[in-house]
Amino acid sequence: MGNFSGQVALVTGAASGIGLAISRRLLAEGARLVAYDINRQALEEAFGANASVARLEVMDITCQEAVEASVQKVVEELGCVDILINCAGITGKTNTKTHEVCSQDLHKVFELNFMSSFYTSKAVLPYMLKANYGRILHLASIAGKEGNAGMLAYSASKAAVIGMTKVQGKEYAETGITVNAMAPAVIQTPLVDAMPEAQVKYMTDKIPMKRCGTLDEATDLALYIVSKQNSFTTGFTFDLTGGRATY
Ligand SMILES: NC(=O)c1ccc[n+]([C@@H]2O[C@H](COP(=O)([O-])OP(=O)(O)OC[C@H]3O[C@@H](n4cnc5c(N)ncnc54)[C@H](O)[C@@H]3O)[C@@H](O)[C@H]2O)c1
Question: From atom 9 of ligand 1, which residue's Cα is the shortest distance away?
Fold first, then answer.
């Protein structure tokens, strides 16, 4: 028995990094996890042997029809959707100034970082409205607040996620549904572990705490945001930047 006992939680990007850490914790807390990822092998390695996982959904979540069909199946089988956490995301090409940006790359990043979070939330909201309960969490980024030079697609798509969170929070504020986002700076994932020390220092020098956030810190905050206890905060972007963003 845990804090999320019996709750149905959909997590995208569940096979790696922050999505994987959140998914594992939700399982440990008793949730019925529906894990979405495009990477079949990583998803099966992470959860295939775990009998308490409700469903593994291998799919490209930028396909709206596939997302809608999957959510419908989940509700038919599991009865409801209590939680949606959108973790799938890509940076696209970096180190590229606006005059060099390829429009196709910009579209691709928006399609995953912004549109897929719209597709998943549009698909679950009718069921949450029926139940008059739901918790939605979108993964944004400090880049969406500050705008990282050389990362137009990523920064603008995360700013769009923050905008959508504000809109959705207000739209459903008189229901039992809350919609929030989380904006991390650098989190210590295997990707960061593999970077040269100098590059990591360049990133952490901008963080007043002078370090990366940990996966545990990201997971702790995410689980609070999607908990029943988080009942009076909606439309908000929670900070996770070691003091870099104080707004
Ligand atoms: N790691 C950080 O330091 C950091 C900082 C700020 C924001 N974020 C945001 O947090 C989220 C998670 O980041 P992460 O570092 O854990 O990422 P990650 O790269 O470790 O994991 C992303 C997952 O998304 C999956 N994915 C990619 N395209 C997909 C698609 N079309 N359909 C379904 N799944 C797809 C990948 O297979 C992967 O498993 C992202 O939205 C990212 O932008 C991360």
Answer: 139
For residue 187, the ligand 1 atom closest to its alpha carbon is 3
Residue ranges, the chain, pLDDT below 70:
1
Cα–Cα distance for residue pair 176/128, rounded to 1 Å: 8
Ligand 1 pocket test: which of 108, 139, 212 has the largest number of ligand atoms within 8 Å of its C-beta? 139
| Range 36-42, long-range pairs (CB < 8 A, 24+ positions) | 36/10, 36/11, 36/12, 36/61, 36/70, 36/88, 37/12, 37/13, 37/88, 38/88, 39/15, 42/15, 42/16
CA 38 – CA 66 distance, rounded (Å): 12
Half-sphere exposure of 152 (CA within 13 A, CB side): 13
pTM flag (> 0.90): yes
Ligand 1 atom closest to residue 15's alpha carbon, by position in its atom list: 39
Distance 87 CA to ligand 1 centre (A): 6
CATH architecture classification, 8-239: 3-Layer(aba) Sandwich (3.40)
Task: Specify the 3-state DSSP secondary structure of 31.
Answer: coil
Q: What confidence score (pLDDT) does residue 52 get?
A: 82
- pLDDT 10s digits, 4-31: 999 999 999 999 999 999 999 999 999 9
Q: Which residues pair with 10 in a beta bridge?
A: 34, 84
Our answer to whether residue 202 is catalytic in this structure is no
Look-up of token digits 């909201």: 125
How many C-beta atoms lie closer than 10 Å to residue 191's C-beta?
11
The domain segmentation of the chain, as residue ranges, is: 8-239
